[in-house]
Amino acid sequence: MNTAPHSLPPQAIELMPHVNGARYLRMQRGLAGFGARTDGGVSREALTSVENEARRWLMELVHGAQYSWRVDAAGNLFLRRAGRDNALPPVMTGSHIDTQPVGGWLDGAYGVIAGLETMLALDDAGVQTRYPLEVAMWNNEEGSRFKPGAMGSSAFADPSRLDEYLRSTDADGTTVQQALRSAFSAMQAAEMVPLGRPVTAYVEAHIEQGPVLEAANHTIGVVTGIQGVRWFEVVVTGSSAHAGTTPFANRQDALLSAARLVVAVHSCAEQYADERLRVTMGRFEVAAGSVNTVADNVLFTIDLRHPESEVLEKFEADIRRIVESNGSPCPATVTRVMDRAPTPFDARVIDIVEAAARHSGVPFQRMGSGAFHDAMYLADLCPTAMVFVPSIGGISHNAAEDTEEEHLVSGVKVLAAALMALAM
Amino acid sequence: MNTAPHSLPPQAIELMPHVNGARYLRMQRGLAGFGARTDGGVSREALTSVENEARRWLMELVHGAQYSWRVDAAGNLFLRRAGRDNALPPVMTGSHIDTQPVGGWLDGAYGVIAGLETMLALDDAGVQTRYPLEVAMWNNEEGSRFKPGAMGSSAFADPSRLDEYLRSTDADGTTVQQALRSAFSAMQAAEMVPLGRPVTAYVEAHIEQGPVLEAANHTIGVVTGIQGVRWFEVVVTGSSAHAGTTPFANRQDALLSAARLVVAVHSCAEQYADERLRVTMGRFEVAAGSVNTVADNVLFTIDLRHPESEVLEKFEADIRRIVESNGSPCPATVTRVMDRAPTPFDARVIDIVEAAARHSGVPFQRMGSGAFHDAMYLADLCPTAMVFVPSIGGISHNAAEDTEEEHLVSGVKVLAAALMALAM
């Protein structure tokens, strides 16, 4: 952590040409082979046998006297590269190798292989950093097989969460604790280390999973934080009536009333004219849901996101005002069912990532993350930031997920330079 | 058919005091015992054993030298009261005794018992009409167990429909043909008569199943016709996207777009300022329907009703204009999936019903029927009209369905007078 803001030490700049794009892509495509589908997608859910094989393959991929592999009780796997002062807490990068039931080939796998390529670039450059470096493969980020998501990184940040996580079951009734046994067996070459170790700094590379960078023709996103999220359920109550016999004046039409609320909430969001505000009505469930019956009940959801708590608070008040003023003939209620505060990243680490992006010579921008990432929990523990590369068409969690190869390689270079600046 | 418009012959007026309200109510409540539920509702679907028991009970209820019971190949049951000239086609009344899976105690059962009480009132008055009179119990009006609804009356109006109907199956795979066997066995005392006999005139009494009469404080609705119905399916196509990562400008939000269409179609309907126009969006189905995903597909339905074909035509054009101008970013398509033309009733029979209502001394109004009835098919065959009585709260197809006793009795008197005027 010897770097002044807005500058990048020469050693970090000099590391970038050592990033080997062809080698990086071979490793990235190699990992995609584990769980590969014929449609180009990848099915590699957490703690499945195919994910265990991928862990074993990664452990065989990078080795040498300077390296050691480690695992913790939450199933997080780490590649450690020794520093000059190994008593210092590591500078860390990484992400996750688990996917959604049908995911893309990049997602978290990008940040993991970008980390491994950074290690190999340091080898090629003959550099020994002052701080030890670690690449983390956080367990079960997706949360599709076992809930919650970001299980490994959140247990790392707060080990008191682990007990509950170990009892989480998948659809077949298998617990995390049971599934971890075969994972540990696949990783028996790794040394067991405690959860909750101190970390000097954390930088995670990830695909954007959205359309912002592509639309702006920017190769790198310097991620300044993860926006806060609140979820709401709105229930609109009308009265069932015959579509043929009931005049408009006698109706309490929950569907019509709810449609007006959806439009009103969206119009309110547009009036903010704030590009960072995200408001989504994604569920809309009608009872009775019959062609010739006036609906008597609608439940719809609102997903609200913004990087600033004040804006979340203000928009929640707007939602309550809009919904609660609905009144006659169809009263509506709103309930907040989820609340996750915004996670701002560390100003100094953001500056270092931005300086690395500037020196990499490709166009970049600062941006917030719309999605959750393991970095959200690491930010509770140590100075943190992220590097984004564009997603073609903004598509993710989909077999069609992809990123231009040159963008992937640019992202590895920026990550490598930032880690060098932090660890030297 | 000897009656001039706007007048009622003295014999018809004189019949009304012979309607016995207490006897009528006993019969109405007796029929409600077949399939009675503890919540006050009735479960008596078509051709079930409980409906067969009700048929048998009705056949034992009314008998005498002037009466004969008849059945046809579509399962319609008739009580015939001899006239002075039995070669003439009958003047007919009736309705249906089947219910929705959970129905109310009145619905079609009202028109059947009102018809039986008319016969008994004629007996008490010592009247023999010129035309034979028949009370029809049309088979399977509801269409909940076997599709389509109004099966018996539509086969009566056009016997070529019967072959297809006999092959219709319920949820257990039982065909109408199979279910009719036990019904015929329950009705073996009835004589089999052909389908498609000529009918002199048809008047059906029914509860309104809507709120119009109650709101107007009118006891009798003189029904001038059954409105036409068109059903549409609207499909709105967007694109799935992450609620957290996708700015508004990059979204193709099918849910928001469909909600706007629902509001637009309703606003268009309101601009007609036509109390007879009924427009209902009752289904609204969202894919993916996930709280944190922008929806990529919505299907919603439009139920459009009006007594005039020209208005149906004009509003359909409005729907097409609104939906098809939706365009970018969420194109929408509209498909008409059902089209039933308006059924105007016969002016002379309407006049007779109105004259009977005037002479009954209770407040009345002319009105259209918002719902389908067996009378819709009888109108294809002979001069037809209907008599409505109020529904408390406009509620029907529900255990809470009810009508004030005095209103029920008033309706029987109007029906009796109208039938007398037509049959004398």
What does this structure look like?
The structure is a homodimer of 424-residue chains. With 424 residues, chain A is an alpha/beta fold. Chain A folds into two domains: 299 residues, 3-Layer(aba) Sandwich (Aminopeptidase); 113 residues, Alpha-Beta Plaits. Chain A contains 13 helices and 17 strands. In chain A, strands 1, 2, 3, 4, 5, 6, 7, 15, 16 and 17 form a ten-stranded mixed β-sheet that branches. In chain A, strands 8, 10, 11, 13 and 14 form a five-stranded antiparallel β-sheet that branches. In chain A, α2 runs antiparallel to α4, α4 packs across α13 and α11 packs across α13. The interface between A and B is large, with 58 and 58 residues.
- Strands of chain A, total number: 17
Report the CATH C-level class of the largest domain in chain A. Answer: Alpha Beta
Overall pLDDT confidence of chain A = 95
Largest interface: A-B, 58 and 58 residues
Report the span from N to C terminus of chain A: 8 Å
Helix content of chain A: 25-40%
Number of helices of chain A: 13
Structural class designation of chain A: alpha/beta
Would you identify the regions of chain A where 5 or more consecutive residues have pLDDT less than 50? Answer: none
Topology order of chain A in helix (H) and strand (E) letters: HHHEEEHEHHHEEHEEEHEEEEHEEHEHEH
What about the largest sheet of chain A?
10 strands, mixed
Provide the CATH architecture of the largest domain in chain A: 3-Layer(aba) Sandwich
| Assembly status | homodimer
- Globally, the shape of chain A reads elongated
Number of domains of chain A: 2
